[in-house]
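Good morning C.,

I know you're traveling, so I'll keep this short. The sequence:
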Amino acid sequence: MIRRLWLVGCGNMAGAMLGRWLATGTLDPADVLVVNRGDRALPGGVAQMRSLPDGPLPDAVLLAMKPQQIDEVAAVHGRRLAGVPMLISILAGVEEDVLARRFAARSVVRAMPNLPVEIGKGVVALHSGSADERDRAAASALMAPLGLVEWIPADRFNLVTALAGSGPGFLYRYIDAVAAAGAALGLPADMAARLALATVEGAAILAAAADVAPAALADRVASPGGSTRKGLDVLDQDAALVRLLTDTLAAATARNAEMAAAAR
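The tokens, ready to paste straight into the viewer:
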């Protein structure tokens, strides 16, 4: 099990993960250390420093700086981290072998969380070619309080990053678009925004609890010849919505591949 954790860098995503771990008792603040260039607001009891301390290594180290800083961080901290049992990276586009060449950890795990981990409703994609069964179990247990945990093959990691990691951003844009459409057709903008957000929230909760696919739920809403069906006809014509989202995910996946190439 992972009890002691060092974080190298602590941006918004790592901060969301840390807050959830502490709130659920997964980690004790006294067992967490954040190493950052500058102080940031952290939960009470979490120490932050400018450099890694001497003494025993923790159970795991989470790399949470910007991907472009990997060489700098490796030069500064790589020797100190040699032999750490597990190195977990949330650096977008940085592949496992790139991490392994720069950090001599016993095992390396790539993780891609999304923003709802803050409330325990996120997705965490994991991949490792070096972790044994025990390490994989430890990584899964650490991530479990954050939401859905999925182990992903290396050749699908960029795509999953686009779908789940970037997905909340695309969904937030959809919520704004529905609200804007309502306002364009005559609703007060603030009312349209409230209605759009509440509609998506309720629909998502229902879909998560349902024993049928979302497509079946859509059919339950849409009676033949009714208004919902007319709206769905627009989204379904020539697979317009599927094509739009396929292009969206493809663009994000391609960018992940570009960042991976740059990190090599």
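Safe travels,
E.
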